[in-house]
Amino acid sequence: MSEDREGRDAALAAFDRSGDAMDLAVLVTERGPRAEVVRSVEDPVVGELSFGFRDVRIDLSLHARGPSRTLAGTVRGDFGFALLEAHRPSGRREDVASIEETGEFALQGLHRGPIRLTLRRDAEPPLTTEWFTL
Amino acid sequence: MGARLPDQSHEDPETVLSSGPRHEPPPPLATTGLDLDDAELVRLARLGSREAWCGIVDRHLPMVNAVARSYRLSAPDREDVVQTVWLALNQHLPRLREPHHLRAWLKRVTRDKCLRQRARDARQYPADPEAFAHVEGDAPDPEAEYLRKERDRALRRAVDRLRDPGEREEALRFLEPDSTPPPRDRRAASNGRRRMVRRLRTTLEDEI
């Protein structure tokens, strides 16, 4: 395959209109590692991201352990019970975490690659983040 | 990451829960997608036309790939970034305010995502210390520097033992060409240098 056509299958597979009506939380801030990543730190933070939509804010810390990634953070907003799901481009739901009363959550053992999170709340439409890369 | 084809065999909760409008299927494109401008392709893709999406991908994929390659990311990271760009376009398709500026939008998003990926990975690459064994740095190797000084000291001692002032002068001219005046007779100096080298070698061999 020529370099110009590289990734064409994945690009074509990205087409999906089923989420057009979902609310979209856009990336507000992204920061790199706070300090030099050293081997002695088991799960170093390799990035921090914040997504926002109206009064909802999702703050994420991206932790790395070998090829595996963990997303930990908090969801702030006015809602009761909520779940946070990790979705892959195929539509597959890789993991789901419940949001604690403090708003904290953790999604562990994630593979690298494109991902988006969907927040499901009581009596509210689902809210999804922009795609980002682990 | 390789290309991931959509898995149609499962029930996607988003599809089930989505309360979005159901569009009528878009009309088939009368001509190939590449004959239409970007704004028209975006409009048809918003309506669900895969053909229009295909036209967008085929028109702009080479540019997106070229921009991504220019950031020299690892191949898996580059593939992830490029895929994320197309996922982002799909996600933002209903929200694009200036679809006729699609190319500029794609270029900006690709650069942005490549920069973020590069910044994140800049501190993550594990390195095998052995890989640096053959890298030549600007600083002198301490061991080589020590051996050079030891050799110079032995050579200086051997020069000091030369009894002939002419040979000693020739040795100093050889060791410190900048601080010793040039010889008046070059042929004699050449013969004297050969004698001096032989004598120095003998002295150094005796020292060892």
TrEMBL record, chain A:
<protein>
    <submittedName>
        <fullName>Uncharacterized protein</fullName>
    </submittedName>
</protein>
UniProtKB/TrEMBL annotation, chain B:
<dbReference type="InterPro" id="IPR014284">
    <property type="entry name" value="RNA_pol_sigma-70_dom"/>
</dbReference>
<feature type="domain" description="RNA polymerase sigma-70 region 2">
    <location>
        <begin position="56"/>
        <end position="123"/>
    </location>
</feature>
<keyword id="KW-0804">Transcription</keyword>
<protein>
    <submittedName>
        <fullName>RNA polymerase sigma factor, sigma-70 family</fullName>
    </submittedName>
</protein>
<dbReference type="Pfam" id="PF04542">
    <property type="entry name" value="Sigma70_r2"/>
</dbReference>
<dbReference type="GO" id="GO:0006352">
    <property type="term" value="P:DNA-templated transcription initiation"/>
</dbReference>
<keyword id="KW-0731">Sigma factor</keyword>
<dbReference type="InterPro" id="IPR007627">
    <property type="entry name" value="RNA_pol_sigma70_r2"/>
</dbReference>
<dbReference type="InterPro" id="IPR039425">
    <property type="entry name" value="RNA_pol_sigma-70-like"/>
</dbReference>
<feature type="region of interest" description="Disordered">
    <location>
        <begin position="1"/>
        <end position="34"/>
    </location>
</feature>
<feature type="region of interest" description="Disordered">
    <location>
        <begin position="166"/>
        <end position="196"/>
    </location>
</feature>
<feature type="compositionally biased region" description="Basic and acidic residues">
    <location>
        <begin position="166"/>
        <end position="176"/>
    </location>
</feature>
<dbReference type="GO" id="GO:0016987">
    <property type="term" value="F:sigma factor activity"/>
</dbReference>
<keyword id="KW-0805">Transcription regulation</keyword>
<dbReference type="InterPro" id="IPR013325">
    <property type="entry name" value="RNA_pol_sigma_r2"/>
</dbReference>
<keyword id="KW-0238">DNA-binding</keyword>
<dbReference type="GO" id="GO:0003677">
    <property type="term" value="F:DNA binding"/>
</dbReference>
